[in-house]
Amino acid sequence: MYQKHGRITLERLELLNDGKCYLDSDSISILSQVYLKRMSVSSIEVWRNTDRFTKFSDVLASTAFIPVQTGSSFGPTWSTHWFRVKFEIPDEWKDKEIHFLWDSCSEASLWSPQGRILQGFNGSGGDDRRAEFILRRPQHPPPNDGLENEVYIEMACNEMFGAGEGGMIQPPSKEKMFCLKQCELAVFEREIWNLYCDFRILFDAAKTLPEESKRRQDALYIANQICNVFSSSDPSSWSHCRQLAAKYLQQTNGSSVHKVTPIGHCHIDTAWLWPYAETHRKCARSWATALEYMKYYDSYTFCASSAQQYDWVRQDYPELFHRIQSKVKEERFEVVGGTWVEFDGNIPSGESIVRQFLYGQRFFQEHFSKTCSEFFMPDTFGYCAQLPQIMKQAGIEYFVTQKLSWNLINKFPHTTFNWKGIDGTSVLTHFPPADTYNSNARLDQMYMSLSNNKDLDRTTISLMLYGHGDGGGGPKHEMLEMIDRMRNLQGVPCATVQPIHSFFQELEESSRDLCTWTGELYLELHRGTYTTQAWIKRYNRLCELLLRDCEFFCSVNLLLSSAFEYPQEEIETLWKLLLLNQFHDVLPGTSIGMVYGDSLKHYEKIQTSANSLIAQTAKSFSGSEASARPVYLNSLSWSRKELVEVNKHQKPDNVTCQESDNGKILVAASAVACGLGSAFCSIESENHCSIRIEGNVHIMENCYFSARIDGLGRVSSFYIKDCDRELITNAPANQFVIFEDVPFFWDAWDIMIYHLETRRELEAKNIQISIVENGPLRISLEIQFNFLASSIHQTISASTVSPTLKFSTKVNWKEQRKLLKVEFPTNIVSPVATYEIQYGHLQRPTHYNTSWDLAKFEVCGHRWADLSEYDFGLSILNDNKYSYSIHAGKISLTLLKAPKAPDASCDIGEHFFTYEMFPHSGSFQQARVIQRAYELNVPLRVFDSLPTINQSYFTLSKDCVILDCVKQAEDRPTTLLLRLYEAYGGSCKTSLSCHFSVKRVVTCN
Q1: Averaged pLDDT, 716-732
Q2: Phi and psi for 118 in degrees, rounded to 5?
Q3: For residue 921, with 0-12 CB atoms within 10 Å meaning exposed, 13-18 middle and 19 or more buried, which class applies?
Q4: CA-CA distance, 667 to 652, in Å (whole number)?
């Protein structure tokens, strides 16, 4: 008799489900009966330590194969080994379902003798273990050609999540060995497998559904009956058990039930705990597996993003790519996302994000005859407020993520909503309510899609992304079986299988009165990603702007010379390398060290090639003889004055000059907007700058301000002349401070709020301070000191042509789990601060009134951040930093972090960065803060051999509009594309003047 002891019954059900608490679980659980008959293979041979990418024809032709047995170990980490496995299927198995079982404690892939990659394996003890391959299955498609008695296995000596020593995110062990535990054939008992899947539904329903629910009680009762009937030694009991389960599984929902669209998914990090090269194979293994499973599940649909990953498969596995193309046409394999990679959502520039969509959508159009309407970015660490506008202009209508479910402080209030960007553009956004992009597709997560849906009153359908991910893998057989059983199972949402674009159309049509979220989607976690691996942030900014200058200069030459061949293909290649390194585990600094070895090579190639293109373009520049004086390029869309260094023999006459300590001459250039120039200007004597000493204080003065620098290099006073105002009243600025930085788990990812409780001012030792330059055009003060195990070398400078105080800094950083910031206390009172983001700016609170305010104790910004009250403010500009904290009148710029995982040597070494203090009257718009931040990041580029010229090629009538990109249009060699944006936060009309004839002007996406 069934007794009412629910908790005990549940534990009994768990025993029958997996029996894991018993060493002899093989005799207890249902699943243990799936493979009752097994046999060894005839032979196993191995070709050890091949290249990661070995042509299959070379595998077939190799004479290096040697016999090996199970139990042998292979390595070291990241090595590759090819196996040739031969077998004979006995006659008594001819009408049986036969599986090939392989477990090398690593990732691997199975190939046919004809060179077709068919499926991936993952040998681990976790839920993502995949050890079976269906060789034969009666009443289903015939076996793959050539698999009658032989298969090939490519073994990769890494696990699904790399080879972390002592933990998943720990640096990889370089000498890890992997044991071949299993290589055999087995008869698959499908009847017992079906019983297991039925029982799993009942077990999960008994655990998950509301306690007062009759469906939960029914599931518990029937599952307990199955426990009473089941006998591992009596196959006749299995069908009886299935009949009991059918009573439950055949009961259906009513017409008003919530629907869930399950989409097979396989999130593959383009690099993370493994290098880029291994991702090529992860894609092939995972996507081949998806195609293989489609043979057995007619309704199975699968989606994958990232054009870069498709392009790798296209190049490395052309036969597999062709099969994918066929399934895309059938809408079984869906390309989603529309971008080159799933990029970091905070740090890339606006132009970089545009290029992500440009090259992603063009690839999908070229190879799949379609573009994407949905943007997938489920695992990125926050989403900037400019994304909705860029998405819409790239043809994207819908957005999917779930990362904000990771928030530590506030729970995001919506599941389906309209996300509005800073310009008012909205996109329909959906957060799959199972709060994962790696769902196991079990009943508990299907039910969570209902219970955790925050918009049930407004929507009737939601999305579930299922399949093992991050390291690849994708859906397993069990997941597909679960979905089949939940197509219309009473008590849980209906699993409605359909293409993802159909899901969004239904969502859009059936939703009502959706809420709107305006501004950024800020992740209350992983704030350290704005800082970690500081060098890659520096190279990213540098290369973004280098490619900008390269395209501008090539475009100008295209205008002036019909013979000039615009190097579009080469520039696109460089852009794609840059975009690759903006992947959301690379640019944020959260990958293993060997990933950054690859990234550094990419950046070196970008710099070498882009600078070479600029030099070649300069040589081919049309005009008369070269000038005796230097010519400089200003790619910015406004005129500017800037100090430049020229050779002594190029010293211009009748202008103010200053000899530099490197033997060159410093002069003030007067640059025209978007053009080339050779004009210099003289500086009146009353506007010259100088340094004087009073005691241990150095007073730096120009026509804009007077700054007092104390013996520690701190700014103890900053008097702004045109405002008649002292900026600093309580504590000095340029104060370096250090914090303890010990996150819960995600070492490279996080800066936790409790770090604020560990603030210490640096205790400087061995201080040296000296005057390096003392006017008339530039003044410089050099400070050097040691602290802890590290050192700082900083040059503080000011000039006659700039209202900023510049700090050019080198840090030799040798700390562990420490955080370095520089602080700028002010007497400014304002409840908000303003930060530059992509193509605009965003305001955030400077107080901790609410938990939402408090959560933003560390935020991302680009080239500047501004704290202003009425008619006065201070902006901090920088050339490669992205992390700020502004609270109670103090601006902090986060400089360096020192995590130990997943890269043990992260950020150890020399770092170079520049920041500027820019006090101003009026608003930041009136003070031209945006323009000054551009000028810091895009200095004039000086040429020695161009003809004398002083020509602006583009000019704009309004300061608030910025010309950010000039390039050759795609597929239109005689057309230029100009990308402009309104930067001040309003609407305006402007006129664009061009120094060349224009046949036609059109707006474009």
Answers
A1: 95
A2: -110, -35
A3: middle
A4: 8
Measured between alpha carbons, how far is 785 from 712 in angstroms, rounded to an integer? 9
Distance of CA 950 to the CA centre of its chain: 42
Could you list the beta-strand ranges (E) of 680-764. 680-681, 690-694, 697-701, 705-709, 715-720, 725-726, 735-740, 760-761
Residue 308 has pLDDT above 70, yes or no: yes
Could you give the count of Cα atoms lying within 13 Å of 803 in the half-sphere of its Cβ? 21
Q: Name residues whose C-beta falls within 8 Å of residue 407's C-beta, 6 or more positions apart in sequence.
A: 523, 524, 525, 855
Are 19 and 230 within 8 A, CB to CB?
no
Are 691 and 774 contacting, i.e. CB atoms less than 8 angstroms apart?
Answer: yes
φ, ψ for residue 933 (rounded to 5)?
A: -65, -40
pTM here is: 0.97
Residue 810, CA distances (Å) to 271, 535, 792, 902 in order = 29, 12, 6, 25
Is residue 661 within 8 A of residue 797, CB to CB? The reply is no
pLDDT of residue 86 exceeding 50, the answer is yes
Instruction: Provide mean pLDDT across the span 335-358.
Output: 98
Contact 822, 735 (CB under 8 A): yes
Q: How far apart are CA 736 and CA 20, in angstroms?
A: 54
> What DSSP letter does each residue of 412-442 carry, written as one string?
---SEEEEE-TTS-EEEEE--TTS-SSB---
Cβ-based neighbours of 637, under 8 Å, separated by 6 or more: 673, 674, 954, 955, 956, 961, 962, 963
Count the Cβ atoms, other than its own, within 10 Å of residue 813.
22
Q: How far is 277 from 51, CA to CA, in rounded Å? A: 11
Q: What is the DSSP letter of 685?
A: G
The Cα–Cα gap between 530 and 384 comes to: 13
The pair of three-digit structure tokens given for residue 610, joined into one six-digit string: 């882009």
Angstrom distance (rounded) from CA 576 to CA 570: 10
Helix locations, 230-349, DSSP H: 235-249, 276-294, 307-316, 318-329
Quick check: 935 pLDDT over 50? yes
Q: Which residues are catalytic?
A: 379
* 952's tokens: 């602006």
In this structure, the dihedral spanned by the alpha carbons of residues 317, 323, 324 and 327, taken in order and rounded to 10 degrees, is 180
Task: Please tell me what DSSP assigns to residue 408.
Answer: S
What separation in angstroms does the CA of 258 have from each of 200, 493, 494, 515?
Answer: 22, 5, 7, 19
CA 389 from centre of chain: 19
The average confidence (pLDDT) of the chain is 95
Q: How far apart are CA 468 and CA 470, in angstroms?
A: 7
Contact 966, 956 (CB under 8 A): no
- Average pLDDT (642-668) is 90
Cα separation, 169 vs 161, in Å, equals 8
Q: Hey, is 102 helix, strand or coil?
A: strand
* Radius of gyration of the chain, Cα coordinates, nearest whole angstrom: 32
Residue 943, φ and ψ in degrees, nearest 5 = -120, 145
Residue linked to tokens 């992500």: 356
Q: What is the dihedral of CA 161, 162, 163, 169, to 10 degrees?
A: -60
Name the nearest CA neighbour of 192 among 443, 481, 486: 481
What's the pLDDT band for 1 if we cut at 50, 70, 90? Answer: very low
CB-neighbour burial class of residue 559 (10 A; exposed 0-12, middle 13-18, buried 19+): middle
With both helix axes pointing from N to C terminus, report the angle between 350-368 and 534-560 in degrees, rounded to the nearest 10. 70
